[in-house]
Design goal:
Length: 108
């Protein structure tokens, strides 16, 4: 079984949420706000590159902008395989959560 990591899952969900605004800096900002954790831009891009190699995302380039010194933004888009991987991890997590016994924390 080859499940995606938590970072991969969160990035795929962020791409799904942000849709046409899914580029590196925007994804990082979204994840920092959503998780209240620091996400370095390097971790974001390394994970996005890994997701692209796996076929879970595809990329496209936007138009060059003067604000970026004439460079284009690289946008990320979910593929059908990316959606399937999210559905699979959700199914596994739901199954594991539903099978948890009730904890007796009074004696802990």
């Amino acid at each position: 079984m080859n499940l995606i990591s938590r970072a991969e899952e969160l990035l795929l969900l962020a791409i799904w949420t942000l849709q046409d605004q899914s580029y590196g800096a925007m994804l990082r900002d979204y994840l920092v706000e959503a998780t209240n954790e620091d996400w370095s831009i390097g971790v974001v891009y390394n994970t996005l590159d890994r997701l692209a190699r796996k076929g879970f995302v595809r990329t496209s380039l936007g138009d060059p902008t003067p604000e970026r010194g004439g460079r284009a933004k690289r946008y990320f888009h979910l593929t059908a395989e990316g959606v399937e991987s999210l559905e699979r991890i959700r199914t596994v997590q739901n199954s594991l959560w539903s099978d948890l016994p009730i904890l007796n924390l009074r004696n802990a």
